[in-house]
Amino acid sequence: MKIFLLALTFISWAFPRKNSCGPRLKLEWTAYQPANLKASKLFNTDEVLNIKLSGSLREIFSDRAEKVKYHPISFSYAAIDSSEVTISAEAKTRGHFRKTAGTCLYPPLMLRFVKNEKFRSSIFSDQSKLKLVMPCQGDEYVVREWMVYRLYNLVTAKSFRARLVRVQLEDAKKKKKPTPFYGILLEEEQQLAKRNHSVLIDKNLIKPQQIEETNFLTMAVFEYLIGNTDWSIQYQQNVKLLLQDSAALPAAVPYDFDHSGLVNAPYAKPAEQLQMYSVVERRYRGYCIPNTTRFAEVFSVFKRLKKDIYNLYSDCPLLDAGYIKATKKYLDEFYSTINNGKAMQKEFSYPCDENGTGNIVIKGLRKD
């Protein structure tokens, strides 16, 4: 009832209930939330949030040098009572491919909030800075990437929370406002760590075998499910590492899924050294495990969640019917593989093939 009443108050900027993709994760987060942490004001709902960025935006978007700087902006969002709340912030371009490739309309941004009284009373009060994913070539691919984050939220609490937003830009030097588009606000890394009673570690050349096995296999199988090969443990390419205590092994948390087959963005291509024809081709990129019975526990999780995963896509009105149909077919292929002994053995023992590309390390654009 509380969720329903809150939804009814979104009558100005906020979208009506039909533009949300279901309340499922609101209930899931309750189970994930440690007892001594309050639920995030920003990420405890899957409702689309309307936001507005105002300022010298052209100057911000044009700043794509190796070392970029923060620029002041005004950041506004729609409150529960439909009023507009404005807080002071700074923004800078971030990322690698989407910032430097020259094919993206908007670069991704890093937002940093000014911690004053207005900020502390806002829904952003527990997030000091946030990544804002902007559309590269069509915001439908942003929505698809958001869905991938939600899919992994179903699988494990060691996953980034993501909030879909509708972004309005107001450039101080341009009278014409561009059409609002979808973006993603991504949970702050420190909040991810705190929520999982862990700390972040940043150390290159940690081997996949040094990651806690169940966590690693869960992540690697998930990356296979979505058709993503753009990651590595060794260089923390699109992966963050968490450590609970000195006696534990690190855990890996993936992010940035725009190069996955499930998103199938027009600019996405697999790394040339992987010798793959397309991002929709799946390639398991774990380490060599000849005895694939070690995958059984992880496979059982994905099998148990099968209905929820399919419903996640079926129940989302932000996705067009053609994409939902193609996604279900893509998911069918994954489940067909893990339910077929020979096919499963072939796919998930691929890193054991000395003549294959299963052990290629994706370094990405990170520096040593």
Please tell me about this protein's structure.
This protein is an alpha+beta fold. It is built from twelve helices and ten strands. The protein has two domains: 2-194, no CATH class; 198-352, no CATH class. The strands form two sheets. The chain has a seven-stranded mixed β-barrel. The chain has a three-stranded antiparallel β-sheet with strand order 8-9-10. Helix 6 runs antiparallel to helix 10. The longest helix is centred in the last third of the chain and has 18 residues, at 321-338. 38% of the residues are buried.
Q: What are the SSEs and their pairings?
A:
Layout lengths: L1 H7 L15 H9 L16 E7 L1 H6 L8 E8 L5 E10 L3 H4 L8 E5 L3 H4 L8 E5 L6 H16 L6 E10 L9 E6 L2 H7 L3 E3 L11 H14 L12 E5 L7 E4 L41 H9 L1 H9 L6 H18 L2 H8 L20
Parallel strand pairs: 1-6
Antiparallel strand pairs: 1-2, 2-3, 3-4, 4-5, 5-7, 6-7, 8-9, 9-10
Helix pairs in contact: 6-10, 10-11
Q: Strand tally, please?
A: 10
* Residue runs with pLDDT of under 50 for 5 or more positions: 1-18, 23-38
Question: How many separate domains?
Answer: 2
> What fraction, in percent, of the residue positions are helical?
25-40%
Name the beta content range: 15-25%
- What is the general shape? globular
- Radius of gyration computed on alpha carbons: 20 Å
Helical segment count: 12
- Mean pLDDT metric: 87
Sheet with most strands: strand arrangement: 1-2-3-4-5-7-6
